[in-house]
Amino acid sequence: MKIEMSLHALRLKNVAGTFKGTSDPFAVVTKIATEPGKKPEVLGKTEVIKNNLSPNWVKVFIVDYELGSNVKVAVSIFDEVRKSENLPMGCAVFDIAEVLGARGNTKGKRVKGGGTLYLHVRKSNGSGVLRLKMAAKKLKNVEGLFSKSDPFFELSRKLDAAGGKTWDSVYRSEWLKKNLNPEWEEAAVDLSILTEGDFKKPILINIYDHESKGNHTPMGELEITVNGLKAAAESRKPLAVRLKGKDAGELYILKADVSGLDTVTQKMAAASISSALPTSSPAYKGIGASTGGRYNFLDYIAGGCELNVVVAIDFTGSNGDPRQPGTLHCLNSGQHNDYETAINAIVSILSKYDTDKKFPVWGFGAKYGGEIQHCFQCGGADQHLGVEGVLRAYHAVFKSGLVMSRPTVFVEVIRAAAQHAANAHASAQAQGGQCYTILLILTDGSVSDVQATARALEDASNDPISVVIVGLGNDDFSGMRFLDNFSGPGTGKRDIAQFVAFNQHRHNSQSLTRETLNEIPNQLSEYFASIGVRPNPPIQRSDSSISMEEEEEIDLSLNIDEDEIVVAAGGTDFVAY
């Protein structure tokens, strides 16, 4: 999956110095290396916003993301100083999974020294580049009697939010000094950012008079689409620019070429130019716009879909005596056993998408009071807070008088989790929300009845659930591999199971979580598609409602020349060249 990251900040500290005005901030974004042998990657830097301590940068950064991957980015803010070294204004590190799991897919960090930095992520769709060249004529002067305006333009994309439609600026041109008939340089804009590859999706073009203090004055606007731009370029007819309902000049599209299309975008491009503009466009009349496409995991998460996690742990006798070193359940204060390692790695990732971070923890395969239990509660509560709570519940079982027994049976755990998933989603739906459950089964051996387990999985495929099975120890797990490939042949049922052998990823927790969770995004979107449920509109965000954290001190320095950006770090142990 590709995601887009955008940045803005509020009330940064002015570091320009006495009598030197207000800082001109820009940001550098670095993807931190989180695996052995990997190097950090500088994703780029934003534009400079002049004289502004609350910058809203239009530069968008695109990064690959998979559920289960540990992606972190460092954002460093600097005051541009000409003919001298740029001055640091603050920095913060963001965990992309935490941002995706936060309300409105946005997270804020209070920066040391003053101010707040916000990072927003969203799905990236489509491909291709729009090469756009524009000129304007007869723009209305908004500068006053004794001067002329300095026009520049912005391109904004239309976002659907829970509170209604909103515009998000994604490109800003250069400004031309004292010119009411400007011809701007050619712009190259990524269509995945501007319109998600949809040639019929509305675009807003705003023209502003540039002001050195940053409070730019509107000169006019118009709403159009990529198809509309292409049609205007072919016809050479001017588009009407309006300001507060009145004529404010003419806009000429000198070039509107699209290159680098993928298959999806080509299909969108094949739409008739006659449907180029939305109904509300002041430039053309009577033409509608539409969007389409298959929804994916990020669409549902952006709409507030909760991921619930249920952990089920194997306490059968084949795990060995937990009092003996080297057995799978041996508890050693100095080192995690395999069960603890798997819980730590997988639940820590999934917890970022769960608002309350409370998880049921169940056990199976142990005797209580002489009777074998194939699904029992671990710990003293029906849910446990965070990864540490899950580990405490796991540890508590060994103080509860259990007798580790056999056989290995998943059926009761799967059925209980499926019912839990159905109830959780019904409860969320009653409040206008959505919920999907992941059952994490940790086991040391193959199930005793593969066919019964397969039938339980087939039944559960009708519910909003995925089942992840992690095999620990040295069993051959042949039955588990059958379950991994089982999807109810001839029944049309969803494949909801994923099996991963822990030993193959023992020394790389990121590899473990990626392999364990990589099928869940498709399973989630396939479930909701199968019942005809669309994602809710993206949750509207406001700075006051965004999840906030204090940022730890990070020592960063920056050196930029024409060919490279060098970021050197202290406390975060990353260096990018």
Automatic annotation (TrEMBL):
One of its GO terms (molecular function) is calcium-dependent phospholipid binding. Signal peptide: none annotated. Residues 1-109, 113-239 form the C2 domain. SMART domains: C2 (SM00239), VWA (SM00327). One of its GO terms (cellular component) is plasma membrane. GO terms for biological process: cellular response to calcium ion. It holds the Pfam family Copine. Keywords: Repeat. Residues 308-524 form the VWFA domain. InterPro entries: C2_dom, C2B_Copine, Copine, Copine_C, VWF_A. This is Copine family protein. The lineage of its organism: Eukaryota, Sar, Stramenopiles, Ochrophyta, Bacillariophyta.
